[in-house]
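PROTEIN DESIGN WORKSHEET
SECTION A - STRUCTURE
LENGTH: 299
TOKENS:
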């Protein structure tokens, strides 16, 4: 994503709109009127984030996580359903809401494009719950030495960060976890993981596979790693040559029992779960120059 181009769009564009979203059985959006000062502050927040990340490396979004000093990119087509749930809610904001102000889950800053018929730019930020202020007090100290306490009721926390940006057909992800939580991708990860584990080769060759499957699907990290295997990977590769897999198990002390003659591998307890996930990811490796062994669980 071209951040210089995006900065120009925001800088020269008209006043942004603030949407406040609550996610219940469906997404409810409130679109309050905002003054020019707040509108400019929202612009400044956006531009500041673009400037901070102007030289950052941009890499393709990886469900397993990202490296430090890296921002991620995703294609909007891959998350069309999740995005449309939000944009459709924006089109029909509710006039009245029956939930408390501190139950807003995220804010959406909408920036009109300066190009005719082009979709607006959307920036997302999870709200900060201010429950830590429910006890005690907060106030303002004036120059005359007078301290005035402030009313804490119905406060909503807004900071100067942005979690991700939607511009044209790209998503720029600045906060990996917040992106997944705002779009509620956990359900998608689970469905993809189930699809991967539905491969018949697993149940045919892994003794105790049902227990393995149950353990994997109850662990959020393993679910995300499995969901990634549903595209261009072969998660059953380690089952095609159990002699080679046995050599890996012995070299890395995986303590996995393998019967090459019967063409079976045994899952015996949950302490082996991570090793089986690594095998599905083909995560064990040797370096070509230094001949070093290791595990890359981000594959």
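SECTION B - SEQUENCE
RESIDUE ASSIGNMENT:
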């Amino acid at each position: 994503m071209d951040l210089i181009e995006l900065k120009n769009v925001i800088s020269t564009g008209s006043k942004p709109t603030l949407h406040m979203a609550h996610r219940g059985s469906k997404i409810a959006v409130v679109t309050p009127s905002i003054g020019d000062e707040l509108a400019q502050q929202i612009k400044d927040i956006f531009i500041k984030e673009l400037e901070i990340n102007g030289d950052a490396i941009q890499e393709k979004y990886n469900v397993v996580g990202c490296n430090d000093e890296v921002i991620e990119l995703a294609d909007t087509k891959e998350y069309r359903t999740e995005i449309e749930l939000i944009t459709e809610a924006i089109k029909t904001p509710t006039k009245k809401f029956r939930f408390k102000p501190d139950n807003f889950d995220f804010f959406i800053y909408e920036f009109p494009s300066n190009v005719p018929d082009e979709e607006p730019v959307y920036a997302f930020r999870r709200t900060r719950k201010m429950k830590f202020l429910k006890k005690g007090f907060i106030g303002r100290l004036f120059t005359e030495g007078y301290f005035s306490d402030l009313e804490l009721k119905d406060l909503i926390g807004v900071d100067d960060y942005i979690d991700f940006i939607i511009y044209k057909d790209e998503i720029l992800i600045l906060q990996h976890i917040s992106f997944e939580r705002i779009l509620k991708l956990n359900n998608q990860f689970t469905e993809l993981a189930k699809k991967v584990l539905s491969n018949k080769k697993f149940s045919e060759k892994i003794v105790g596979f049902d227990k393995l499957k149950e353990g994997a699907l109850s662990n959020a990290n393993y679910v995300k790693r499995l969901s990634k295997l549903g595209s261009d990977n072969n998660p059953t590769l380690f089952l095609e040559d159990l002699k080679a897999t046995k050599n890996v198990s012995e070299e890395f002390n995986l303590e996995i029992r393998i019967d090459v003659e019967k063409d079976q591998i045994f899952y015996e307890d949950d302490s082996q779960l991570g090793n089986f996930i690594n095998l599905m990811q083909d995560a064990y490796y040797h370096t070509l120059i230094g001949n070093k062994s290791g595990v890359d669980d981000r594959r």
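SECTION C - NOTES
The mean pLDDT is 86.
The longest strand covers residues 17-23.
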